[in-house]
Design goal:
The chain has 305 residues and is an alpha+beta fold. It has helices at residues 22-31, 71-74, 141-148, 205-214, 244-259, 284-292, and strands at 12-16, 42-46, 55-56, 66-70, 89-93, 96-98, 103-107, 121-126, 162-171, 185-191, 196-198, 201-203, 219-227, 230-237, 263-269, 300-303. The strands form four sheets. Strands 1-2-3-6-10-9-8-7 form an eight-stranded mixed sheet. A four-stranded mixed sheet has the order 13-14-15-16, with helices on both faces.
Length: 305
């Protein structure tokens, strides 16, 4: 790209409806570094259907912080910070600074009560620009009201909140932005609907997928979901088809060693089979529907039932 100068770009937002992808923001900054794009200009923002702008990381605020969580505690919805490089540690970048006029609270998905800083819960948001509902959904008024207009079961029972459907936690910090306001960080861990309930614990698909992708250079992409209480791992094979059988043992072993889970089904497919939306986020439920309808045209399928 000749005659392109990006030094004037102050803010470049990486929009996400899930956990911020650290590798993506770092790669984006590296690719456009020679064109003058400052690494500080690349920041994250989090929004969802009930509120498209919950928080963002602007240039006037402090640099986004990355914390390291104990994955074993996270499976029990507990937030325990550990040192970088600790065994079973998970790096998590903050999604950004909560915008003015937006209130965020972390709530228990079952009791609808507020949670403390050491607990993982659903992110609820209260704001004048919250969505009021879906135009194309009819019926199920009670479910509709619970999603867009809900209240805490105790504590502040007057404020009306919208449920984002994403799990996360708030971390109080002493950092201040350019205006002198305290910077409270929101950390989004993942979608509530896509979490895997296995062995009485909550697993997040992205963590298992990361382990699988690291296990072999020929695995181009990976997605996981559950089917009748079985863990299904779909991997895209970037090498020759002769390697498909070798991947089954590797995938099974890495998931067992790092997450203590037994893989029920391993599906090896061609590159591009795992559906990706416009934001680059995996559509795991669409993939699951395709698997159940026998539409994936796999290279190899291994059942461990």
């Amino acid at each position: 790209m000749r005659n392109v100068n990006l030094t004037c770009v102050r803010t470049c937002m990486v929009v996400a409806e899930e956990r911020p992808r650290i590798a993506l923001t770092q790669s984006f900054s590296k690719i456009f570094k020679d064109l003058g794009l400052s690494a500080r200009a690349v920041s994250t923002t989090f929004g969802c259907r009930v509120n498209v702008a919950v928080c963002l990381q602007g240039t006037s605020g402090p640099d986004p912080t990355t914390v390291y969580l104990d994955m074993r505690a996270l499976r029990h919805d507990r937030v325990r910070l550990v040192e970088r490089g600790s065994p079973h540690s998970l790096p998590l970048m903050e999604s950004g600074k909560i915008l003015p006029g937006v209130k965020v609270i972390i709530a228990n998905t079952e009791t609808k009560g507020p949670l403390g800083d050491s607990h993982l819960g659903e992110v609820w948001v209260s704001s004048p620009h919250n969505a009021s509902g879906y135009y194309t959904v009819y019926g199920e008024e009670a479910l509709h009201a619970d999603h867009f207009s809900t209240k805490l079961s105790f504590g502040d029972t007057q404020t009306v909140w919208a449920r984002t459907g994403y799990l996360g936690f708030l971390r109080r910090t002493e950092l201040t932005d350019a205006c002198g306001e305290r910077h409270d960080a929101l950390y989004v861990v993942g979608s509530l609907d896509e979490t895997l309930e296995l062995r009485g614990m909550r697993y997040h698909p992205m963590d298992i997928e990361t382990s699988v992708i690291r296990s072999h250079k020929s695995i181009a992409e990976c997605a996981v979901f559950t089917w009748t209480n079985l863990l299904v791992v779909v991997v895209e094979l970037g090498g020759s088809e002769q390697e498909a059988l070798d991947l089954v043992a590797l995938v099974t072993n890495v998931v067992l060693e790092e997450h203590y889970l037994i893989v029920g089904v391993v599906v090896v497919v061609d590159p591009g089979v795992i559906p990706i939306n416009s934001r680059g986020e995996k559509q795991r439920m669409h993939l699951r529907d395709g698997f159940l309808a026998d539409q994936l045209d796999p290279i190899y399928v291994a059942y461990n039932m």
